[in-house]
Amino acid sequence: MAVLALNCPDIQVTVVDINEIQISKWNSSDLSQLPVYEPGLSEIVSQTRFKNLHFSTDLEGSIKKADIIFISVNTPIKKQGIGSGQACDVRWVESSARLVSKYSTGHTIVVEKSTVPVRTGATVEAILTSTNNQSNLDINSKSFDVLSNPEFLAEGTAVNDLQNPDRVLIGGKSEIAVNVLEEIYLNWVSKDRIIKTNLWSSELSKLSANAFLAQRVSSINAISEICEVTGANINEVSNSIGKDKRIGSRFLQPGPGFGGSCFKKDILSLVYLCEHYGLKKIAKYWEQVISINDHQQERIFKIIVNNLFGTVSGKKIVVLGFAFKSNTNDTRESPAIFICKKLLEEGAFLLINDPKVGIQKISEDLGMSSVSESAKTKNQFEGGWDFSHNLDDSFISADAVLILCDWDKYKVLNWNKISKDMRQPAWIFDTRDVVDESQVQSTNLNLWKLGKGSKNIQTDFNSL
Ligand code: UGA
Questions:
Q1: Tens digit of pLDDT for each residue in 347-404?
Q2: Which listed residue, 4, 224, 358, 464, has the most CB atoms within 10 A of its CB?
């Protein structure tokens, strides 16, 4: 909405939320307080806020005035009931639709921005037009069109993705309503990038795009494991296959597995949809993408333990990066959570650093507070963790460094100095291709890089 406000100065944009704390943070004069860290976002908010971008908790007043309403709420995986663990929980989409139905006046275009299961548009329409939600007086005075306009931005590059989208997708029955939304995007997106489809194609395209992207990550991660045992190098393989125009070079970076709020949820939602329609084989096919992702995280944990002589108990491991990727403060489904929890269960002491994720968030995600001062003085570090405020001092007496995100500051670490701080034999486990091997060669550090086979590896191919 900030980018929309920036590109359409004649349109008044109001972001409403029932959460007063979040809204007050969005209104905070201190731009470092914005709830979401996204490169370039605070600059746009400061340019547009209080002019044509507003943040408010006044749902009734804002809905009354609106000509177009974007429903942009959470659609997490259901935790209980039918479809638990797989189906999307659309309760907030539903409750938003009820509010719109109740408070709107005249004609309103309702746009699904949230990623939703296919055919949610029908539910939204049914709720909007249900007379239960409206007083009798209203029935003839209000009308709605429902559109689907899924969002394809990725966190960390959101501003650029929105400013220069590969495509904008608008699905809906009413040609007039579709054209109204198209007009808005035409303020900064060229016409050939705007795709108009039916509602269901638009909803399914979003899920499918994420499933294809996640599949690429699982595919390259599966190849990374083959590289490690054969002596092939994942960067060379990735580069070679990416040069094929049909494959393309993007989304071929191996890593600790995909995280974020979208990929896992959307594939599970696709799997649930397949099962709903009795498409068991198709459901199994997509499930495999998640299974490889789980496997990647599990095997990284095992590689660390194996290389540290089969035990990490009481050993100090510095963890670099806790968000699900760099340039975001989002930790949802971050591979760091699973890997850190497993290491803590094994008795390791973790010193965790992340430029944008704070101690409070890490405590919530790990389900345990950082080690207390009293424990520290008694040297009771086993199975505990602490936040690394000062990266320079973090490596003292560490047995290993685990790199889970490729934040720029991790790319310029002085490994020569670090190697002198660490306890020998010391290890670096690099899951994001951050460490320059030539810088480590002159030190006494052992380096394991994801997807890099050892030159000396012996594989008995006849026994395979
Ligand atoms: C993803 C899609 O890329 C967006 O197009 C979509 O709009 C968004 O989901 C959504 O549904 O809202 P996002 O989850 O923010 O965006 O981030 P990605 O850049 O896609 O990364 C997802 C995960 O895959 C990260 O953990 C990342 O580290 C991992 N990844 C990505 C790799 O391991 N290798 C790659 O080559 C690319």
A1: 999 999 999 999 999 999 999 999 977 677 666 788 999 999 999 999 999 999 999 9
A2: 224
Residues 6+ apart with CB under 8 A from 334: 259, 260, 322, 323, 324, 365, 404
430 Cα to the center of ligand 1, angstroms: 19
Q: Look up residue 175 and give its two tokens.
A: 């040609």
Q: What is the Cα–Cα distance from 420 to 416, expressed in whole angstroms?
A: 7
Give the C-alpha separation, 358 to 296, whole Å: 26
pLDDT given at position 464: 41
Question: Which tokens go with 114?
Answer: 């949230």
Q: Which two tokens stand for residue 95?
A: 């409750």
Q: Is the CB of 235 under 6 A from ligand 1?
A: no
Helices in 8-90 by DSSP H: which ranges?
20-26, 41-48, 59-65
pTM: 0.93
Which residue type, as a one-letter code, is found at position 280? Answer: K
For 208, the token pair is 């499918």
Give 260 Cα–ligand 1 centroid separation in angstroms.
Answer: 7
CA of 303 to the centre of ligand 1 (A): 25
Told to judge if 405 belongs to the known catalytic residues of this protein, a careful annotator would answer no
| Neighbour order of strands in the sheet with 168-172 | 68-71, 106-112, 142-148, 168-172, 194-197
407 lines ligand 1 (CB under 6 A): no
Q: Locate tokens 């009734």: which residue?
A: 60
Contacts of 53 (CB under 8 A, 6+ apart): 1, 2, 5, 13, 15, 45
Q: Which backbone phi and psi does 110 adopt, to 5 degrees? A: -105, 120
In this predicted model, what pLDDT tens digit does every residue of 401-426 receive, in sequence order? Answer: 999 999 999 999 999 999 999 999 99
